[in-house]
Amino acid sequence: MDDLDRVSSIGGSQDIHAQLQAAATPLEFQATLETKFQSYDNYCNLFHFILNSDGPVELDMPNSSWAWDVIDEFIYQFNSFCGYRQKVALKGDNPEEIQLLRENPNTWGCYSVLNVLYSLIQRSQISEQLLAIKRGEDPKAYAGEYGQRPLYQMLGYFSIVGLLRVHCLLGDFSLALKTLDDIELNKKSMFARVMAAHFTTYYYVGFSYMMMRRYADAIRMFSHILVYVSRTKNFQKNAQYDSITKKNDQMYALIAICVAFHPTRLDDTIHTALREKYGEQFNRLQRGGPDSLPLFEELFRAACPKFINPTPPDFDNPELNVDPVEHHLRIFMDEVKNNMMSPTVKSYLKLYTTMDLKKLAGFLEVDPEKLRCWLLVNKQRNRQIRWSEGGLLAGDVVHSSDLDYAMEGDLIHVAEAKVGRKLVDWYLRNLARTY
Amino acid sequence: MGAPFDFAPERPEHIESILNGLDRYNPETTAVFQDYVMQQCENQTYDCFANLALLKLYQFNPHLKQDETVTNILVKALTVFPSPDFSLCLSLLPSHTLNPLPTSSHTPAAGDLSEAVQKLNELKNLLEGADYTQFWATLDSDDLYADLVADVSGFEELMRVRIAATVSQAVREVERSILESWLNCQGKEFEHFVGTVCGWNVDGDKIKIPINKDNEAKGTVVRENVKFDQFSRIVRRAYEQPA
Fold this sequence. Notes:
The complex is a heterodimer.
Chain A: H1 13-23, H2 33-52, H3 66-91, H4 95-103, H5 110-124, H6 126-135, H7 144-147, H8 150-169, H9 173-179, H10 195-211, H11 215-232, H12 239-261, H13 268-287, H14 293-303, H15 324-339, H16 342-349, E1 354-356, H17 357-364, H18 368-382, E2 383-386, E3 396-399, E4 403-408, E5 411-416, E6 418-419, H19 424-434
Antiparallel strand pairs in A: 1-5, 2-3, 4-5
Chain B: H1 13-20, H2 30-43, H3 48-60, H4 67-78, H5 85-91, H6 111-128, H7 132-141, H8 143-149, H9 155-170, E1 171-175, H10 176-183, H11 187-197, E2 201-203, E3 206-208, E4 221-222, H12 232-240
Antiparallel strand pairs in B: 1-3, 2-3
Helix pairs in contact in B: 2-3, 2-4, 4-5, 4-6
């Protein structure tokens, strides 16, 4: 991209260390537009220097989480800049800023941001390295002259996580999940070395699954990381831990939403925490019905990422610059509305083995034909794609509810899948406690 | 194992290579994707992952956007309900497209695309709500719908097949009149569709659907799957600390 080809202003080696530090440091909260532009230029210079010098640059990372911090801050600033620009355009009451933004349409442009991330991935040959690890080979053989250096390797690696995040912010949930094809999600992954990276990855993967209506998979992601955090929080009493507290709460909200769509037995730790945090709200979500709608809306707003519009807004028609969060909320609420009667229907069906449709419609005080629709909807929603192996987008259709039924004319046949008692977890925990 | 979301059996090689490379962001590939959408409309094939890539190009380069291609993509996504494809496409459209339209004054900037998208979204909500009778009635109620689905060959037939598939998952027997209104066809045409296309039995005024995995509704007992690995720590502990 043109922006990266600007003349580098990087001078002596003292300078560069200050720059490396600065790239990983958040802007102050009230930063002006000029500061944001300046910060963008600084990133461009730094990445230009790292990517386009003659051969790999000889730099040591200031500390182990530096690479993550840089990518994280870079995307955060892109995210907040786009959000800010959208707001200025929607309000339309600050002509100077509007003018400034009109004149610089390419600053923090989506193409430059993606270009940086993809270039870092390619330079470091991180995808080739990860594939080698998957095959059980030595990644060094595939790393090339750049990828052998920790600086490039880590920047490349975290750029993959960065892409996941950017795609999700842009509303491209399937591509977000596709991005992680090369990364294996487990505690041995490289991202697990940096708590914030570990955490962020699971949040965005879980959220993307939720928007693809794969609730079982979303729950699996959120549970995994929430359990991990609750087990390790005693070792993490530091600044990094504080910064993830907010995301932690967001994930509890999301898991509450997913469980409402897809009732599941959760890990005990999470279940207890959910009860403490949401209590009555959690019950209302699970009961469904029209009363639950405002609650779904509230939790989604609080827990979704700050979606962005990647292109400069339409300054001439302020009213068109709707906050992208509202757009995604509308799409999501259609899905909620479509499902809201399922819990009620299920709660009745649970009580019978056969039931007459008209009689049930009488209980529910609805038109029998309406009930027939609800039954079809609920049945469709019980079929979900669930991951079993391979890439994150792979999966099999499974029947996800303990309640199954079929209609024969007006007669509903109900069958229940009984779950045998699960003892292993309980047994292991008590064993661990007693000896 | 089911096919991953990004898989499409009929995807040509040149599309596959664009999708896997950085050319998926190159505005010059817009034309290639647009042709591919047209092709999908004509041969009744479908490739959601490629269509999303095109919507993303539009998202990054709004001046390239062709409203007709956008609506064609949405109509194609309707034909695979109740999968989330339609919603995933919506997520990539400009954020004002779902904004309630002003009733009186006409805003040319928001334009006809918003109206078309919201009309189609209405259809999606009816389909996902399994209100098939209302779906057909709505489709018939406005000439705009006829224009929107015109490019997609065999739209009504595709919808019928899809509706029949969702019905067969939940139903063993259904009254003829109800199924007629769900499928929006009667008489000989209805008997042909139900008997030959679906392979169901017409029995007087009842339609019997053969038992399949989904409509048998059999009770099962799920038992816990215990792996030895789960006990590895306990076993190790026993060796480390002899009592």
